[in-house]
Amino acid sequence: MSVTVFHYVFLATVLFSIGAYGLLSSRNAVRMLMSIELMLNAANINLVAFSSYLGNLSGQAFAAFTIAIAAAEAGVGMAILLALYRNFRTVNLREIKELRW
Amino acid sequence: MLEALMPELVIAVFALAVIFIDMTLREDDKEFLGYLSLVGVGIALAMVFSQAKSLLAAIAAKQALQVSFFSGLIRVDLFAVFFKLVFLLVALLVILGSLDATRKDKYKGEYYSLILFATLGMMFAAMAADLVLLFVAVELASISTFALAAFRKNRTGTEAAMKYFVIGAFSSGLIVFGMSLLYGLTGSTNLYAIAEALPKTAEFHWVLILAVVFLIAGFGYKVAAVPFHMWAPDTYQGAPSPVSAFLAAASKKMAFVALLRIFLIALSMPALVKEWALLFAILAAITMTLGNVVALAQTNIKRMLAYSSIGQAGYVLIVFALLASTQVDLNLSIGAGLLHILTHAIMKGGAFLAVAAASYYMIGSNLEDFAGLGRRLPVTALTMTIFLLSLAGIPFFAGFVSKFMILTASIAAGGAYLILGILLIINSVVSLYYYARVIRYMYFAEAEVKREREPLLLSVALVVAALLVIYIGVFPDSFVSLSLNAASSLFS
Questions:
Q1: So where are chain A's domains?
Q2: Chain A residues within an 8 Å CB radius of B70
Q3: In this structure, which topology does domain A5-88 adopt according to CATH?
Q4: So what's the pLDDT on residue B64?
């Protein structure tokens, strides 16, 4: 059995679902950051797989941009996380509720 | 080619200049950075204004309507210029207000350069004709605003920023996954090429539907449409007021640009329009109803403005729903949406800046804190009244014109789309109640207050925004024709 584009897309879908589930189910901010990375990387697998299947390069260029953006996003996310931790002494979003009515 | 990109170049240069000059200044001298960014935005605004003028002249003479370059990556048409005007106008007002509102804060250099970078991202998003550039531009603006929301590093600010970040990053994941599916189906990232290739993908229609759902959900988070709205009240309440103004008035409008470009150009296959227009109709109906009804229960003004902003986003979403109608007037519908985006940007930005003016005197943002504001800060209270009346859609204010245009478009679309127009009217009536409550507190509540000197620059920003609201309300013709022309330039 050879590996076709469908296998890659299937892998990406599974990875994306794991990321989305992790983000929605956990309340630990660090774990949420990790889940976000999974979701973005799932899209990257998709892009690269499609790019090689279609034989044009714009998908790979898109993936390169997505990787850079994911890094920037993680950087800002970590900075916000640190500021949050200094204020609340926890990274569990369930215990952080200044903004409720 | 380069002339068309000059405004962006100016903003980029000033953003970098602000962050570099910041390193050489002492803490007391950092006011200067605010004035520097004000100059940058002013120059860019003047340039975009002349772009708009020459494009309008070209349309009147029936010449070429747009420039596109970098092999179709960027497309400068009147639609893009219209949005650039909105973003730069909001950035100008926010920076003007911030000069007073963030006077006591540290990290001014970072603050102003982040605002400029966010504006730059929004301007590129308005011109993007390619999924890659669109995604990068949207992320540039989003990541800058994540940091802006946390810039005071206090408890509410960081909590607001964390919620905004998690939801924002989740929505980016959804958007980029949807885009990857779209690329896989059509083999291109150019919006116009995707539109051409879509009819040949009938075999994988379900993948296309999946991509549409991912894109609607992803951008739905960014515009805070109802099932995806929970971050907005928390973020707008917790972030510093000028940043809330920027988020509600500019950042949200950028998501509308992206939605309009993707759905009206790339996904405009008639068979597909029927499917996504239904989704948008449902979203619009629940967004405006829930936004306005929940706003009734709010006692914090920033939170109430956030819910009202959710409701107002629902009004713009009506426009997408109308496109499936057989008798739709395409220019009228999209033009109505564009005009509402412009007027809402001014009035909601102004309203948040008024809250910022109040908090300059340590006045909180709860409803009781605003008691007697009419005597304490007369200019702030008067302009706030104008913004609130305009948001409610009272005639002779800008909000009335754009709401009326959306209503006209929904009547023109006829049939079941009339329901959306009726919902718009009902919701406007409901919204009048909670806007009027703020006005009643400001002018008729008993309070022991004395008149204070209002912050000058913040008052200037408020008065400019208020005058614009009244001007658009009294002389709407040129703005209506501008938005109609901008709508038609999307397709030519």
A1: 5-88
A2: none
A3: Helix Hairpins (1.10.287)
A4: 65
